[in-house]
């Protein structure tokens, strides 16, 4: 899946997510979740990375499950346990499953896209295949490039405050100043290189759309629609 066009991959995941929003079935949502996990493993995403990413999602899904089970009035049948004398309403359990598994399905689709897609290639695909204006695209790329800079600046300031014995973590103002200075430097560099959003530009990386992109797009949406009717 990594070799697919990033833009069409994102479009495929968006359409599948949109179709899932119209279906309230935990069998389908859980199937999508399992398929996403399988595709991550096939694409050689480290299992540890997958587990760490899904840990907060599982906690959230568990909380939503118990909330939907305990505070819902949609049950139609009851099963009273003799040990705890607790009334478990089957409809409430299904409601909790529907809510929690939907979270897993959407998280699986999102993490599948994040773990198998290069953000820079995704922006380039939006420019070439979906005609995203260059000023927006380069602005997004510049913001993405700021992330490691801000992270490193945060670490530097944290060590500097610790060396001076300052206990208050006043990081926002210095980080803001650094971000403004860096943005001004990037803007001047782009102007000095003759950047103009309206002018025609050459492309160092040329992404293509292959038949597999259309097959995955049509096949994924078609299978999801078919599963919605079957389930």
UniProtKB/TrEMBL annotation:
Alphabetical keyword list: Cell membrane, Membrane, Transmembrane, Transmembrane helix
Chief localisation class: membrane
One GO location term (cellular component): plasma membrane
Locations listed in the record: Membrane
CDD domains per the UniProt record, alphabetical: EcfT
One Pfam family, short name: CbiQ
Mode of membrane association: Multi-pass membrane protein
Top-level taxon in the UniProt lineage: Bacteria
Transmembrane regions: 24-43, 50-71, 103-123, 130-150, 170-190, 211-230
Protein's UniProt name: Cobalt transport protein
Organism: Fusobacterium ulcerans 12-1B
